[in-house]
Amino acid sequence: MAKQVEASSLKRGRYVIIDDEPCEVRGTSKSSPGKHGSAKVKIKARGVFDDKDRHITKPGDTMMMSPDIDKKVGQVVSRDGNIAQVMDMDTYETEEMELPDDLDAGEGDEIKYWVIEDRKLVKGLKD
Q: What is the three-class DSSP state of 102?
């Protein structure tokens, strides 16, 4: 379940939901409050799944959603092109996932993947 965070508390490397897409914060800059307004926060972020850059400006006290990231390990059961059947090493459930083009994982290899908002992102081979 996603949790709320204040826009002014976001730091580089944290995760936030922008335009219904989980994003990694790449940088923030804060403006000081003016005579009749509150401080503003400019947030630069990149989508986790689509690699799109997103830039937004919000009042510093705005509450934003931060997604839960569940980091898991799975084993590749079979592979057909970029689609692999991966068995979760904790629950032994098998699900299909899209593998990155640069990942050379074959049957039996263990991979790291993240579950964010019921979507899966393969991060690489397990160390």
A: coil
R_g (Cα) of the chain, nearest Å? 18
Q: Are residues 59 and 75 in the same domain?
A: no
Nearest of 100, 104, 78, 76 to residue 89 by alpha carbon:
76
Q: In the prediction, which pLDDT does 25 show?
A: 96
The predicted-structure confidence for 63-120, as pLDDT tens digits, reads as follows 999 999 999 999 999 999 889 999 999 999 999 999 988 888 888 999 999 999 889 9
Residue 90's CB is within 10 A of a number of other CB atoms, namely 9
* Per-residue exposure over 99-108, b if at least 16 CB sit within 10 Å of its own CB, e if not: beeeeebeee
CATH number (domain holding residue 105): 2.40.50.140
